[in-house]
Amino acid sequence: YATLIYYNNVSGGSPNNTAEFAYDENGNYNTYYGPRTAKLQLPSTTQWSNVSLSNIKRNIIDEQGQVRVTNFSYEGYAARLLTIVELKDACSGDTNLNINCQYLLENTGYSNNNFKGYYLETVYSATPGMSRAIESSTYNVGGPPVKFGNGYGVRPTIEVEKAKISY
Description:
By secondary structure, the protein is mainly β. It has helices spanning about 85-90, 95-100; strands at about 1-5, 10, 15, 55-60, 65-75, 115-125, 130-135, 140, 150-155, 155-160.
């Protein structure tokens, strides 16, 4: 599969680069639950009927690769959030977006927009109450609290079988 990242953040599955959302507004600072609030903004399988996830159940990991949530469900959604592993794969093993992956900052504060960035699926290993996010002001990966929007949005990631891509 190829992992493709949408160029806009979304709200209710539609492009919106100004709406901010929590990663998990019902989360707390002691336990990991995954992006329960953020996933609600992703395009549904009805909205994006021409794509689907290879697996709707996913293990949510921290940046050290430790599984923090097992079988998190994206059922009913045609997209998911990008992981830090995929980010590093796309950026030559780095999370410094200024050097290797400026395209991931499209339609954020980096490109004349006041929006900070968008969430990754990955959570912060040191603190359960923190998520991981693309940070447009530092061109890096930040760690905002899970409960508050703080200027972060939701950006869909889809999976496409490589055999279906014309080169």
